[in-house]
C-alpha cells in the first residue's frame, strides 16, 4: 500500500463546521446510539418497556395533579385534561432524560476522551439521539392511545414536527454545553439534576400556561415553555401555537445550537487534560 | 529519504500540576478571592511545567520509529498529541494519511456487550466503517483466536482474551500511520509474538509505525530509529541500537555515596572485555563488570555476590566470590579496590539487571546490597526466546518408511 495521501499539517484543527463533522462521523454516531440503546435494554428485564415507564410515571403524576385540582375547585374532571397532560408529559420525559444523559456523556466516556481521538460532539449528540429513539417509541404508543380514545389527526398536526424539532435542537445545544461544563466542573451535573427536577413547575406540562395566572408571561420566557404550550394547543385545543411565542422558542433553538458548537469546539482541546 | 509520513515540529506542551478547580463550588470562592486579593498569576505559573519542550522529529514513510524514555519523560504526551487527544501548546504536527492510535487495548469496549458487538463498537471508534468491520470480522476474530467466545459478553472474558480482541480490532484498521503504546505488556508470550509479527506485517505493507514501549528488546527489534526523551526534551535521536544503548547507560545511575555501611559498592560499569563502556550486548558475547568497592571502616574478610535478574525480576543466576572458593577481601578504612567479574552472556534476548552485594562468608552478614546496580540489554541474531541461550542446532534425519 503506497499512499499518495497528502501531508496534513495540524490535522486536528477544526477545519469543518461541527455539524458537517458529525455528518462525516455518522456511522460512529449511529454505533454510539446503538450502544446506548443496546446496553440500556440488555441490563433491564423490562427491555423496551423501560422506554415507556418514565413517560407513564410523569403522565400519571400529571393526571393526579389535575384530578386533585379539579376536585378542590369543585369542577368535574375532564377527559381532555388527561389528554393534555399526556401529550406534553411524553416530550417532557424526553427532555429530562436527554439533558440528564447528555450532560454526563463526556464524563462517562472519560476513557474514550483520554485514549482515542474522535469528533467529541458525538458523545452528547449520541445521548440525545438515544433518548430520542425512546421518545419515538413512547410517542407511537401515545398516538395509538389517543386514536383509541377518539382523537383524530388534523392538518394542524403538521405543527408537531416543527415543535419537536425545536425541542430537539434546544436539547442538543444544552446537552453539548452542559457536557463540556460538567467535564470542567463536576458539580454541574447536580445543578442539572435540581433544575430538571423543579423545571416541571416552571413549564406548562401539567398545567396550561394561563393556569399560571399573572406569572403566565414569566413562565413562557422559559425557552421550552412555548413548545409544550404549542403541543397542547395543537392536539387538545385544535388551534395553532401562538406565532410570537413560537418565534421566541425558534430563536432559542437556533441560537443555542449556534452558540453550543463554537463553545464546545473552543473547549474541546482541553478535554483530555482536564477530565 | 522517503517521503515524510509524520512530522513533529517544535512541539511543546504545558501542563499544570496540582490543584485545578474542578467544581463550581471551588471556582466561585476562588474567583471571588482573586478579585478581592488581586491576581496571583505568578503562583499559577509556578505550578506549570513543560511535559514536552521544543520536540522535533520526522518519521519517514514506511519507517518503524521508537519512542523511549523513563516514566514521565513525555512519551505518552507525544503519542497523545500525534493522535489528536491532546493539542500542543506550541508547535505543529503533520500526518500523511489515516492515523490510528492504539493507546489502550479495547478502547470503548463495554463489558455487557458481546465480543461481536464490541468488535463493531471498537472498530467504529477507531475509524472503520461498519461495512469495513463486517468485511474483516472473521479475520479479526481468527486473529484474536476467540471464535468460540465471540458471542459471550466481554465481562466474562479473561484479561488476556479482552486484550487479544482489543488488539485484533486495532490491528485491522489498516492505517497509513500506526501508533502503538505499551500494549505488549498484556497477553501471553504467544500473543505478544503475534502482535510483533502483525506490526512487522504493517511495516512491510508500507505503513509507518510509531512504537512506544518499556520493552527495549521489542523496540530494538522492530524499529530502525528511535528517539530518547528525558523530562520532555530530546536526549538522543538516531539508529535504534545507539539510542537504546544510551538509554540503558542512563539507567545505571551512579551510586549515591551516603549508604551507611562499613564497606560499600560504589559503582558498577558494564564493559566489553576490551574495556569499552557498553550496556548493549549480543547473546553469547563476553561481558565484564567493573565493581568499585570502598571501605568506610576496617573490614576483615568479605566476598562479592553477583545476581542476574531478568525483566520480571526472576533471579536467573547468582554466585559469589567465596562460593567459588576465592579468598575473601579485606580493606582498611578509607581504602578502595576494584573487582572485575567476567561473564559469558549465555542469555536469551531481553533486558537484564545486575545486582551486587558484599557479604561476610562465615555468618552471611550482608554489608551492602544493590539490587539494580546495572542494566544490560541482550539481543540475539537468531530468533530465540527465554532467559537462556542453549545454542540450538537442528539436524533432520532422512525420511524413512517402515
Mean pLDDT of chain B, rounded to whole units? 84
Overall geometry of chain A comes to: elongated
The run of helices and strands of chain B is: EHHEEHEEHHHEHEHEEHEEEEEEEEE
- Amount of helix of chain B: 25-40%
Would you report the number of β strands of chain A? Answer: 1
Nearest-integer average pLDDT of chain A: 89
Uncertain regions spanning at least 5 consecutive residues of chain A: none
Strand fraction of chain B = 35-45%
Fold and architecture overview:
- The complex is a heterodimer of chains A (275) and B (402).
- Chain A has 275 residues and is an all-alpha fold.
- Chain A is 71% helix and 1% strand.
- In chain A, α4 (79-103) packs antiparallel against α7 and α8 runs parallel beside α12 (243-267).
- The longest helix of chain A has 27 residues, at 122-148.
- Chain A is elongated and about 75 Å long.
- Chain A starts with 6 loop residues before the first strand and ends with a helix.
- The mean pLDDT of chain A is 89.
- Chain B has 402 residues and is α/β, with parallel strands linked by helices.
- Helix content of chain B is 25%, strand content 36%.
- Chain B contains 9 helices and 18 strands.
- A 6-stranded mixed sheet of chain B has the order 5-6-7-3-8-9, with helices on both faces. In chain B, strands 11, 13, 14, 15, 17 and 18 form a 6-stranded mixed sheet that branches. Chain B has a 3-stranded antiparallel sheet with strand order 2-1-4.
- In chain B, α4 (115-125) crosses α5 (130-144), α4 crosses α6 and α5 (130-144) crosses α6.
Lay out the secondary structure.
The complex is a heterodimer of chains A (275) and B (402).
Chain A: E1 7-9, H1 18-24, H2 26-43, H3 49-73, H4 79-103, H5 105-108, H6 110-115, H7 122-148, H8 159-184, H9 188-198, H10 216-221, H11 225-235, H12 243-267, H13 271-274
Helix pairs in contact in A: 2-7, 3-4, 4-7, 4-8, 4-9, 4-11, 7-8, 8-11, 8-12, 11-12
Chain B: E1 4-16, H1 24-37, H2 41-46, E2 48-60, E3 64-69, H3 75-82, E4 90-96, E5 99-102, H4 115-125, H5 130-144, H6 159-171, E6 177-181, H7 189-204, E7 208-212, H8 216-222, E8 225-230, E9 233-239, H9 240-251, E10 263-271, E11 280-282, E12 286-295, E13 299-310, E14 315-320, E15 329-331, E16 336-344, E17 350-360, E18 365-379
Parallel strand pairs in B: 3-7, 3-8, 5-6, 6-7, 11-18
Antiparallel strand pairs in B: 1-2, 1-4, 8-9, 10-12, 12-16, 13-14, 13-15, 13-17, 17-18
Amino acid at each position: 500500500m503506497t499512499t499518495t495521501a497528502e501531508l496534513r499539517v495540524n490535522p486536528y484543527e477544526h477545519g469543518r463546521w461541527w455539524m458537517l463533522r458529525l455528518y462525516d462521523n455518522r456511522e460512529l454516531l449511529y454505533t454510539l446510539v446503538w450502544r446506548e440503546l443496546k446496553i440500556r435494554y440488555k441490563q433491564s428485564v423490562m427491555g423496551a418497556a423501560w422506554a415507556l415507564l418514565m413517560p407513564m410515571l410523569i403522565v400519571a403524576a400529571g393526571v393526579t395533579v389535575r384530578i386533585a385540582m379539579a376536585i378542590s375547585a369543585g369542577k368535574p374532571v375532564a377527559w381532555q385534561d388527561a389528554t393534555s397532560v399526556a401529550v406534553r408529559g411524553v416530550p417532557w420525559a424526553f427532555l429530562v432524560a436527554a439533558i440528564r444523559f447528555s450532560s454526563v456523556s463526556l464524563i462517562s466516556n472519560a476513557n474514550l476522551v483520554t485514549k482515542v481521538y474522535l469528533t467529541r460532539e458525538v458523545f452528547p449528540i449520541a445521548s440525545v439521539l438515544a433518548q430520542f429513539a425512546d421518545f419515538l417509541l413512547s410517542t407511537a404508543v401515545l398516538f395509538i392511545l389517543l386514536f383509541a380514545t377518539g382523537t383524530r389527526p388534523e392538518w394542524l398536526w403538521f405543527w408537531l414536527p416543527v415543535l419537536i424539532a425545536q425541542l430537539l435542537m434546544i436539547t442538543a445545544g444544552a446537552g453539548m454545553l452542559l457536557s463540556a461544563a460538567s467535564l470542567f466542573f463536576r458539580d454541574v451535573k447536580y445543578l442539572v439534576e435540581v433544575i430538571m427536577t423543579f423545571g416541571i413547575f416552571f413549564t406548562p406540562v401539567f398545567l396550561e400556561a394561563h393556569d399560571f395566572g399573572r406569572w403566565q408571561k414569566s413562565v413562557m420566557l422559559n425557552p421550552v415553555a412555548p413548545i409544550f404550550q404549542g403541543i397542547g394547543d395543537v392536539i387538545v385545543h385544535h388551534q395553532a401555537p401562538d406565532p410570537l411565542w413560537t418565534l421566541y422558542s425558534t430563536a432559542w433553538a437556533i441560537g443555542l445550537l449556534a452558540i453550543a458548537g463554537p463553545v464546545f469546539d473552543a473547549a474541546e482541546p482541553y478535554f483530555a487534560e482536564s477530565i | 529519504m522517503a517521503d515524510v509520513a509524520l512530522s513533529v515540529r517544535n512541539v511543546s506542551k504545558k501542563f499544570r500540576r496540582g490543584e485545578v478547580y474542578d467544581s463550581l463550588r471551588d471556582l466561585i470562592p476562588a474567583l471571588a478571592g482573586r478579585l478581592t486579593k488581586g491576581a496571583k498569576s505568578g503562583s499559577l505559573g509556578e505550578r506549570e511545567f513543560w511535559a514536552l519542550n521544543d520536540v522535533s522529529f520526522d518519521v519517514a514513510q514506511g519507517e518503524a520509529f521508537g519512542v523511549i524514555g523513563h516514566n514521565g519523560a513525555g512519551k505518552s504526551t507525544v503519542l497523545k498529541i500525534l493522535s489528536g487527544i491532546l493539542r500542543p501548546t506550541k508547535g505543529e504536527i503533520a500526518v500523511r494519511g489515516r492515523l490510528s492510535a492504539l493507546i489502550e487495548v479495547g478502547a470503548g469496549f463495554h463489558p455487557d456487550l458481546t465480543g461481536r458487538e464490541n468488535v463493531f463498537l471498537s472498530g467504529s471508534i477507531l475509524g472503520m466503517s461498519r461495512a469495513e468491520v463486517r468485511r474483516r470480522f472473521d479475520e479479526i476474530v481468527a486473529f484474536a483466536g476467540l471464535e468460540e467466545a465471540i458471542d459471550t459478553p466481554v465481562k466474562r472474558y479473561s484479561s488476556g482474551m479482552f486484550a487479544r480482541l482489543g488488539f485484533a480490532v486495532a490491528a485491522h484498521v489498516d492505517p497509513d500511520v500506526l501508533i502503538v503504546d505499551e500494549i505488549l505488556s498484556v497477553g501471553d508470550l504467544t500473543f505478544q509474538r503475534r502482535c510483533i509479527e502483525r506490526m512487522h506485517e504493517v511495516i512491510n505493507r508500507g505503513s509507518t509505525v510509531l512504537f512506544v514501549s518499556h520493552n527495549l528488546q521489542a523496540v530494538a527489534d522492530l524499529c530502525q530509529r528511535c528517539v530518547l526523551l528525558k523530562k520532555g526534551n530530546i536526549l538522543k535521536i538516531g539508529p535504534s541500537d545507539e539510542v537504546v544503548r544510551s538509554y540503558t547507560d542512563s539507567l545505571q545511575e551512579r551510586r549515591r555515596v551516603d549508604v551507611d555501611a562499613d564497606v560499600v559498592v560504589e559503582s558498577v560499569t558494564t564493559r566489553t572485555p576490551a574495556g569499552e563502556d557498553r550496556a548493549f550486548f549480543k547473546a553469547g558475547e563476553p561481558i565484564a563488570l567493573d565493581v568499585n568497592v570502598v571501605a568506610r571502616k576496617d573490614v576483615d574478610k568479605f566476598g562479592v555476590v553477583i545476581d542476574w535478574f531478568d525483566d520480571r525480576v526472576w533471579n536467573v543466576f547468582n554466585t559469589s566470590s567465596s562460593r567459588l572458593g576465592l579468598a575473601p577481601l579485606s580493606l582498611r578504612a578509607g581504602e578502595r579496590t576494584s573487582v572485575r567479574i567476567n561473564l559469558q552472556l549465555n542469555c536469551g534476548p531481553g533486558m537484564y539487571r545486575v545486582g551486587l552485594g558484599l557479604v561476610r562468608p562465615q555468618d552471611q552478614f550482608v554489608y551492602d546490597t544493590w539490587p539494580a546496580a546495572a542494566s544490560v540489554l541482550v539481543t540475539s541474531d537468531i530468533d530465540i526466546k527465554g532467559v537462556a541461550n542453549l545454542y540450538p542446532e537442528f539436524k533432520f534425519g532422512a525420511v524413512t518408511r517402515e
